[in-house]
């Protein structure tokens, strides 16, 4: 294979600036290489073997990047964890992923410690960046270890947890390939090549930088950032997303590519004209977005401002997807694109039969040579499959020339600010409140976030509906459910609309909020 892949590029050009932390600290490729090598030596001494897993509860930046690079060259699974979750939610993932080491940044120490206890993780497997009570300092693991390349390297992988529709998240686990990590890294760059992206300076190309705008625990953020690094691009990390800061970083680091969600576009376009005009964004060649439908007028305005660099795709953690170039989108406004060269789409009715062009149905996808399972849940894996296609339950239709349009989300999933939120998990927690007889949770329109979370509650007998009860219900979620999953508002209803068989007619509750919108998405 050729000359791409972080480890090869770092050896060839150790001075190349491979990453820039949110505080502006720059890290050379040689430095990152040495850090990831030392970590592999340290964890092997701890007893980690091929196929083992590690978890990281760390903010965007170099700490998480080193965990990722170590796992990818030592044949381990790396699971980055959502830092909005509570201790018990994090502990479930640490236990379920069978993590042999858990890394926590002091910023998330409180929930991280609760999580390690919840998971029953032994003290010698807990490592802290900064001050984390009862955790070993990270330095203990790496200090004095050789920075030479470890023996017997083999490709590892990330194992991200997707929010489970049944309330518990599931790890999307792919079999390890056993490939050489450098060859595997080169294969990863296929993803960016789909968008026509080119290698950066150490690989013989021009200077390229990739701006990381979203939390690194999202699959796509890890995939795109990781692949950009393997192509020799500099990773520029943002800690907390801000519109003007984005423009400033694009200009300062001559950022050529990034991965965003439509909420980012909306906030950028809301900046005053004089602020927008202050920054030079002409270095941007690929502003790739996904995760939520982008309203046509917003995308149109972004194309007018940034030029033809706005690319879109539709995909899932499980594999497969579509891609829309700026030209494709201008020809088919609102499309999420057509199938990747190695991917296939199938739109079927409720009986699993293919529907004619232009007709709505459930979207199934497959990607050549990619098989996955939801860790420890064969039943869920099988349920979402049709032959060798799988679905995440989204509804859409295809045009004559193969362009996909999304018409409705999986019946109930809420997409707020690009994050998938599953109502079942929230309903399960609210139901536990003694004054709640029944509850339904769903998304209602929100111009900034796409959707916001609404709960409708049938009060228990004798409970007085009103703002005080709503407040009491929300307070009861403290420490049990991440704040981003809390309903923004709670309405009360006398009786919940249910069929005789107990099935909740959520549509009846949801539709009035969407009646003036074109699409219920």
Structure description:
The chain is α/β, with parallel strands linked by helices. Among the domains are: 32-179, Rossmann fold (3-Layer(aba) Sandwich); 338-368 and 382-410, Luciferase, domain 3; 414-514, GMP Synthetase, Chain A, domain 3. It is built from 18 helices and 29 strands. A 9-stranded mixed β-sheet has the order 2-1-12-11-13-14-15-16-17, with helices on both faces. The chain has a 6-stranded parallel β-sheet with strand order 7-6-5-3-4-8, sandwiched between helices. Strand 27 and strand 28 form a beta hairpin. It is globular. The model has no long low-confidence stretch (mean pLDDT 89). One of its GO terms (biological process) is fatty acid metabolic process. This is Acyl-CoA synthetase. Residues 7-370 form the AMP-dependent synthetase/ligase domain. Belongs to the ATP-dependent AMP-binding enzyme family.
